[in-house]
Write a structure and sequence with these properties.
This protein is of the alpha/beta class. It is built from eight helices and eleven strands.
């Protein structure tokens, strides 16, 4: 591991982990938003672009991760192997930005003493160049005490197009969990082709785990709105329509204009992909059973 001098201008005593693989379009904006944190690790997966060079130029400590196809995956590997200087960690994707309000709130939590062992943070998405203030919101448990958090070993290694990073499931926290007031920003500088490519990969994973009935079993991860959606989805066949109506109408996505409409449509498409892939998996399983008889 290559450890660089910090040279930070502030003193937020939290270790930040940024996971990368060919993220040269996103990494600069991400790291510039993190300059108030005392320690930043960029955990790279053998990038072939300028990701590592750009990260070094901005004072991040570099670690390389090569996945062996087994557990632990990347996030848990970081907890087990990085030489953290601080007790609390913040996971940030390379296509995310930490606004000053988020940094200030984290500093306040650390200075006053955390009331919980982990915190959810809500995300505003930048979609088609617009920051979406309404519609479906993503919440992730990305700030937690490293001694109290662990990413579980899901039975998901057989997923088609499986990748090295834990999916959308949250870390298991031993203790209480809260939610921060301020919001992070998800701003992917890649094009829509890359965005839909990621959705295609994530839908493989979600379909597999939904079919096996083991998606999102962590009690802490079950936010009330998400529980309601999943219960509705279970009994209504048109999940894509439910998600569209939820985001565009119930969560006022129409106030974000055309971008809000297209984002809600994208969510609907994503859930339609999951439904179709579940059916495909069921068909393949029946074929395997017939062959085995």
């Amino acid at each position: 591991m290559e450890k660089l001098s910090k040279g930070k201008k502030d003193n937020i005593t939290v270790s930040v982990v940024v996971m990368t693989k060919n993220e040269e379009k996103n990494i600069v904006a991400c790291l510039e938003s993190l300059q108030n944190f005392m320690e930043i690790f960029v955990v790279d997966s053998n990038s072939t672009d300028k990701t590592v060079i750009l990260a070094k130029e901005r004072g991040a400590s570099i670690a390389n991760f090569t996945w062996d196809g087994k557990y632990p995956k990347k996030k848990q590997w970081c907890l087990e192997n990085l030489p953290f200087s601080y007790e609390w960690v913040l996971y940030v994707d390379a296509d995310e930005i930490v606004p000053q309000l988020v940094a200030a709130e984290i500093r306040e939590i650390m200075e006053q003493g955390p009331n919980h062992d982990g915190y959810f943070i809500e995300y505003d998405y930048v979609f088609l160049g617009r920051v979406l203030k309404y519609g479906h919101k993503v919440n992730k448990l990305v700030l937690f005490n490293k001694k109290k958090g662990r990413f579980l070993d899901y039975d998901d290694l057989d997923v088609v197009n499986m990748w090295e990073v834990e999916g959308h499931y949250q870390p298991q926290i031993t203790g209480s969990v809260g939610k921060m007031r301020s919001k992070m920003v998800h701003h992917d500088h890649e094009d829509l082709f890359s965005f839909y490519e990621k959705l295609n990969k994530y839908s493989d994973w979600e379909a597999y785990l939904r079919l096996k009935g083991i998606l999102r079993t962590e009690k802490q991860a079950r936010l009330r709105s998400r529980r309601i959606i999943q219960k509705i989805e279970k009994y209504i066949p048109f999940r894509w329509a439910v998600m569209f109506v939820y985001s565009y109408i119930l969560r006022l996505g129409f106030l974000d204009g055309a971008e809000g409409f297209y984002y809600a449509m994208t969510l609907g498409i994503y859930h339609a992909m999951i439904t179709m892939k579940i059916k495909e998996l069921e068909i393949n399983l029946r074929k395997e059973e017939q062959v085995g008889q």
